Amino acid sequence: MRPRLPPNVPLSLLANSLSSPLPCTLAHLMVSQERQEPALPLPSNSSSAKRAAASMDASSPAPPLLLRAPTPSPSIDLPAAAGKAAAVFDLRREPKIPAPFLWPHEEARPTSAAELEVPVVDVGVLRNGDRAGLRRAAAQVASACATHGFFQVCGHGVDAALGRAALDGASDFFRLPLADKQRARRVPGTVSGYTSAHADRFASKLPWKETLSFGFHDGAASPVVVDYFTGTLGQDFEPMGRVYQRYCEKMKELSLTIMELLELSLGVERGYYREFFEDSRSIMRCNYYPPCPEPERTLGTGPHCDPTALTILLQDDVGGLEVLVDGEWRPVRPVPGAMVINIGDTFMALTLIISCRGSRSVVRSVVPSRAV
Asked: Where in the sequence does UniProt note compositional bias of the Low complexity kind (predicted)?
């Protein structure tokens, strides 16, 4: 799966829930933002893909920032291993693609015109007593899991206004000056925090994106997401933290609902997977794919498989998600109000699900869009 860069500014937000010691759910929202500020030229294409979320412990001291010699596009040098410096690029202001972000033409090739056939499953049947609809939904999920591992869900109960608020919050954060965003930068070895495009002298094929990640656990004594935002960025970010706290809660509810549907599709005892993942911990990740001067020469995120048990993705009408099937990158058409579900490697290992031709689906994102 990977994202391609279109004529909109892309942004994505992921929520990844982990049950100790196994990953459970990754929720990812993807949507594009029309031009609003002249200072941010829109790209003609964008790439983004799902990856393991990273986080930062707010209590860990962050290394000092070192300013690099002036260049046409502002960047920051960060200390790296063995005393080497890693340059952090402000991709929104790059007049051309820096060499570390260039991808070989054959790897950044255009998407196939043939869309991936992904069933739209009404998960509301789990609550409304429609037995025929429930059998139909279970059959759709079983078929999708046995082929490419993707399906879409409607009737999920996630308020559209909440998703929009989460997207707006991510947009506000990524529009901050680079130095301000670096206040939340991820400390190596942790899972929360901000990461931007950075490279040392040996780097190559870097993704054209920025990310913000933070953890969630609904069993915590305090609102952990709110605490993260206020503790890392200050009290002014409390409203943003409350939006993401609620969004993470809804993603957790939805992930457990989908687990119930997977139980039915696999003939597993009702409640088995739901109970197994009930106490899972989560990571939410926001991905941002800045305007790109040469979008056909790079990717927002390279091809990858999701290591989690479940990925939830909300796209806008622009889309950008691609899945590698039979050697071709096939786009997944966005369905208004629906969320894309991807069965991850952990769930496959737990259930011994075999995907199409015995190989795991690979995904990428090719649209510079905004996603939560």
From this structure: 38-65
